[in-house]
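Because discrete structure vocabularies remain unfamiliar, it helps to consider an illustrative case, giving the amino acid sequence and backbone structure tokens:
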Amino acid sequence: MILFAQNRRNRIVIALIVSIFLFDFITKCFLVFNIEGFKRYSMLPKIFIEVGAIFLILKKGIKDKKLITYLLMLIGLSAISMVNIPFNLNDIFDKLYVLNKYLFLSVFAVAFLSFEEDIRIKIIIQIRNTILVLGIINGLFMVFGLISQWEILKAYPNTHRFGYNGFLLKTSEASYLYILLIITTYYDYFLNKKNGILCLYFVAISFFLGTKAVWLFVTLLVSIHFLLHKKKQLRYIYSICIMTCFLVFYFFNDFIIRTVVSLFSFGPEIYNKHGFITFITSTRDLLLINTLNHLKEYGTYIIYFFGGINLKNFGVEFEFVDLFLFFGAFGLIVYILIIKRLFFTEYTKIKLLVFLALMCVAFFAGNFFVSFICSLFAYAVFKYMDYLNRINI
């Protein structure tokens, strides 16, 4: 009976994860081939998971009262911020829509924590392994996309911009997904010297996405790896390499910048018009300036402390800037406490540094915590780290 329940639970987890990717691909097909009719199929399995999580909370009760307190605080802060805006159904709908995205992971975690610890471990392993397999398969589709040039496999269909994300819908989500796949396989290698080849595979595949987020994370991870390496010689050699790179950049910065810019099809136009900062931030600095100008004219104490900015109109896509705009200063503090609660009930130095590297990427790339699949997989990856740490004591 127990074995049957476990097998059924495994099948449900696999089915839900696969359905997220499948419905993402269906949506991508509708968008790329411009098929008429309803297109937002990707949200259906996510709604099902969220409704299922709420049902579990009502059925099993709340185990983590502090986490639910943080959730209620964010809902309260959002309610206060709504009082500050003129009544507009579209703005209210946008606010509730984004609020739901930001709170999804916490709702999932509250439901997840209602299970016994041994069941939680099995679910985390199942989620992690399922996405690992899907990441391998999708990587092959990305390589095939490069060879075949099929629009459906491109990260930026019907454009000349380089990038392939396979059957994934959003390139930003694909970047985070492969960063998380790199993290989980690297941690396996770091602790047990396993999955090193698989980690290198994900590193290589991630470059097919053509995003700066991947380059930034890989650079940070390589730095973490060598600066914390057990062999002093490697640490010294890498430190010398870093200093050499800084010196080379200092003397040849103009040549290096123009070379990097030329690697991206959209690079020269943006660089010549707005400069390197705009290029490296993918015009997010312009969005930030626009939002700051809006705040100068319409900003109030309620907005600064409780949030209320409509991210659809004034989102910057710098993760923690958007969190501040949406929740205000008080809400940002509460959200950081939620992040700590979700990801750092246990931690090691390497886990902390890898997580900070991920957050560094999220800060500049944005759209991490509003992504159902990325936030969910990140939770599974870092909980899996806790499991590995326990069995390696």
